Amino acid sequence: MSLLRFGRRAARVVRSFGAVAAATALLATPAQAQEPIRIGAFLSVTGPASFLGDPELKTLEMQVEAINAAGGVLGRKLQLFSYDDAGDAEKARTFAKRLIEQDKVDIIVGGSTTGTTMAAVPLAEAGSVPFISLAGAVVIVEPVKKWVFKTPHTDRMACDKIFVDMKARGYTKAALISGSGGFDKSMRAECLKVAPNHGVQVVADETYGAADTDMTAQLAKIKGSGAQAVLNAGFGQGPAIVTRNHKQVGVGLPLYQSHGVASKEYIKLSGDAAEGVRLPAAALLVADLLPAGDAQKPVVTAYRNAYESRFKSEVSTFGGHAYDGLMIAINAIKAAGGTDRAKVRDAIEATKGYVGTGGVVTMSPGDHMGLDLSAFRMLEVKGGTWSLVK
């Protein structure tokens, strides 16, 4: 199958913003006549990870339109090239190659999942293209890769935050249950590594497949394991099934989820079984509950209001990852004075004190994410919505 035919079947139509019409070239100012800044994205807009990619694409489109309406960046409009990889790593690799070689993008902001991100990493590195991923696993930025950065909190941070909360509640024996995806496996491994650092013993370690619709057998084992709390490392629909089965089996233990389910969709899929579930997440989900002096409050409130007004749907942290990725990219382009890839890469790495939806970001040559544990808020589902754990 030709690349063109493949693209027609698998890719969402490329969205282009801010192209300067040839017919009006004579009326344009020199700044307006400049080539647009090319932003590339491959996202899981459809498929099992659509709850990630759909709000990410909507956010990028919304922000590109807003930035262009305000005059663009350095007098240049933004042009967004986006493709839907449907959560398939091979499609992601194909689209990343297209973005770099055919679309000639200046920077890539995308990669909804760890699997799709890691498929594109070698291409970004070989092509010397700045790449800001929107996926969660720590492997994306550890070891540090010269051209690769990320916006979401890592799976290791989630493990640390959860174990800190467990210990504060007096729980020292935990049971793990995790899915089979790239993020799930990575978070499980990270939790096993860091649990001893917090004085937590993992007394059960169960897994489930991507297509599984019933985890009662695994949860029954956990119920008899002597665990005091349960941690589900996963994202997608699996955690909602675990949550419902957890109640059905009568496990009777506190249940923690990862930041991979930090959207209202998880609560809807889980129903009343989600009541009492805790998870670490970004401040975006509890914007109204933040104190007036919180540095993130103005940012998350403005983004949430803009998104919900535009799309008539509730905001999720995943769209926030795209917002942060694009804004970090724009700030770097401004600092670099243009789109020279090497200068933009250096400017991203020099990001300091950027206040975003995910936290306050300060990167360095040894840290291509720039968030610490304080960027996570511990949330609990109460009355069918998020509450902030004090």
Notable traits:
390 residues; alpha/beta; Rossmann fold; five-stranded parallel β-sheet; 12 helices; 14 strands; disordered N terminus
The major pleated sheet works out as: 5 strands, parallel
Question: What is the average per-residue confidence, as pLDDT, rounded to a whole number?
Answer: 91
- Going by helix content, strand content and strand pairing, the class is alpha/beta
| Morphology call | globular
Order of helices and strands: HEHEHEHEEHEHEHEHEHEHHHEEEE
Write the CATH architecture name of the largest domain.
3-Layer(aba) Sandwich
**Biggest sheet, spatial arrangement of strands:** 2-1-3-4-5
Spatial gap, N to C terminus: 56 Å
Radius of gyration: 21 Å
Give the total of domains: 2
Percent of sequence in beta strands:
15-25%
Textual characterization of the structure:
The chain has 390 residues and is α/β, with parallel strands linked by helices. The protein has two domains: 3-153 and 303-373, Response regulator (Rossmann fold), CATH 3.40.50; 157-281, 3-Layer(aba) Sandwich (Rossmann fold), CATH 3.40.50. It is 39% helix and 16% strand. It is built from twelve helices and 14 strands. It has helices at residues 3-10, 50-69, 89-101, 114-127, 155-168, 182-194, 216-223, 238-249, 264-270, 297-311, 317-336, 341-349, and strands at residues 37-43, 78-84, 107-110, 131-133, 148-150, 173-178, 201-207, 229-233, 255-257, 278-281, 354-355, 360-361, 377-382, 385-388. It has a five-stranded parallel β-sheet with strand order 2-1-3-4-5, sandwiched between helices. A hairpin with a 4-residue loop joins strand 11 (354-355) and strand 12. The chain starts with a helix and ends with a strand.
